[in-house]
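RECORD TYPE: inverse folding
INPUT: structure tokens
STRUCTURE:
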């Protein structure tokens, strides 16, 4: 099998992974129903996992393992989530990927593995405090393309926020692989973050305070509409 990563990249990633603290498990979901990038994504994840013994990959089929897919809310292939473990107890941080993390998005994958392994979002304390007070579900879908240099900032920020509250889930979505979904939300440029199925959106890579404010606006408007 031909390696997807050259020796230089492997060396850089190995060095970056020296900071890993806790084991990380990648739950990878594929489908036999016309999934063009499933095999490449699986091979990429397995290559990354081979660079550090604290990383492992488990492979599931969306249809055959529907119970596992439903448990983690996985409905796209290729798709995967990252878990971390302390004393054998695995924690799901709401970090999701839909589509192959190629090009610039490879950076998102590597950074997220380190964040999840450290079990620390790295966000400002003020942001953490605000996120901890959220008591309604938040789902962020960050649409990206492999050639977008600004997209990893948006993806990682959304994933950092998901790490701070179990009610928050953040999903990177490769816009071209999931073209119908991109069209549904009117994605014409990336990064484009959709919040709670279109109740709010953020265009571009923004500071954490800006994204937090938008999330709070969406939740406030939702509560107002429920009352009225």
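DESIGNED SEQUENCE:
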């Amino acid at each position: 099998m031909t390696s997807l990563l050259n020796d230089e990249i492997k060396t850089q990633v190995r060095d970056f992974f020296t900071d890993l603290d806790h084991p990380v498990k990648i739950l990878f979901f594929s489908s036999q129903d016309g999934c063009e990038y499933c095999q490449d994504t699986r091979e990429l994840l397995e290559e990354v996992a081979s660079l550090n013994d604290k990383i492992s990959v488990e492979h599931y089929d969306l249809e055959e393992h529907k119970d596992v897919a439903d448990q983690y809310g996985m409905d796209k292939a290729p798709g995967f989530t990252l878990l971390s473990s302390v004393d054998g107890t695995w924690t799901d941080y709401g970090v999701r990927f839909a589509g192959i993390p190629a090009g610039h998005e490879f950076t998102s994958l590597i950074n997220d593995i380190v964040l999840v392994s450290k079990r620390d979002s790295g966000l400002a304390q003020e942001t953490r405090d605000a996120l901890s007070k959220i008591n309604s579900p938040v789902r962020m879908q960050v649409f990206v393309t492999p050639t977008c240099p600004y997209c990893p900032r948006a993806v990682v920020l959304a994933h950092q926020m998901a790490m701070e509250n179990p009610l928050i889930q953040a999903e990177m979505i490769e816009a071209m692989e999931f073209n119908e979904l991109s069209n549904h939300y009117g994605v014409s440029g990336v990064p484009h973050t959709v919040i709670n199925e279109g109740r709010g959106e953020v265009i571009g890579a923004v500071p954490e305070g800006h994204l937090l404010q938008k999330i709070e606006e969406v939740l406030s408007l939702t509560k107002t509409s429920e009352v009225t």
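NOTES: The chain has a mean pLDDT of 95.
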